[in-house]
TrEMBL record:
It is a single-pass type I membrane protein. GO terms for molecular function: integrin binding. GO terms for cellular component: external side of plasma membrane; integrin complex. Residues 3-75 form the Integrin alpha second immunoglobulin-like domain. This is ITA2B protein. GO terms for biological process: angiogenesis; cell adhesion mediated by integrin; cell-cell adhesion; cell-matrix adhesion; integrin-mediated signaling pathway. Keywords: Glycoprotein, Integrin, Membrane.
Length: 171
């Protein structure tokens, strides 16, 4: 038959140990099969595998075998990322008579200011670190300036690398 085991976590010799009582007394020559499901947290910095050492101990004297087995389980973090973007204002129309003023440092002489806001969300279930987001913004069309990239800002402890040509005319 199938039984649920009673297991108790504890620390032993600096290691985390889970002790499960399989049977007491157990008949001589008995054979049992144990399926264990372990829930382990804090695996973000464990690399690509975690190793468990399994050992069957007998309290009988003398103990016939206290052999241990090492089991390595691959670790794979899963997280779903979601990127949201918005432009403020949502639509912009330049007047047909408008022309960019060369050499000017006034913002309004270079066009209408449009702010693009992007939000990167981790939808889990795992935490993430070291995420790289590459955002390609078309700044020229047929050799003419399409978007003049003025500045780049971040929130939430992110690091960004400024693209080439950011505020090239120091507007």
């Amino acid at each position: 038959g199938q039984e649920k085991l009673s297991c108790n976590p504890r620390k032993e010799n600096g290691s985390h140990v889970v002790l499960c009582e399989l049977g007491n007394p157990m008949k001589a020559g008995a054979q049992i099969t144990v399926d264990m499901e372990l829930s382990v947290s804090g695996l973000e910095d464990m690399g690509d595998a975690i190793t468990f050492q399994l050992q069957l101990r007998s309290k009988n004297s003398p103990s016939s075998s206290n052999a241990s087995v090492t089991v390595t389980v691959p670790v794979e973090a899963q997280a779903e990322m979601e990127l949201r973007g918005n432009s403020l204002p949502a639509t912009t129309v330049l007047p047909t008579s408008w022309h960019r003023v060369e050499g000017s440092r006034r913002l309004e002489d270079h066009g209408i200011k449009v702010e693009h806001v992007y939000q990167l969300h981790n939808k889990g279930p795992s935490t993430v670190s070291g995420v790289t987001l590459r955002l390609a913004v078309p700044s020229q069309l047929d050799g003419r300036i399409l978007l003049y990239l003025l500045e780049l800002g971040t929130e939430g402890g992110m690091n960004c690398t400024n693209p080439p040509g950011l505020n090239a005319e120091q507007v």
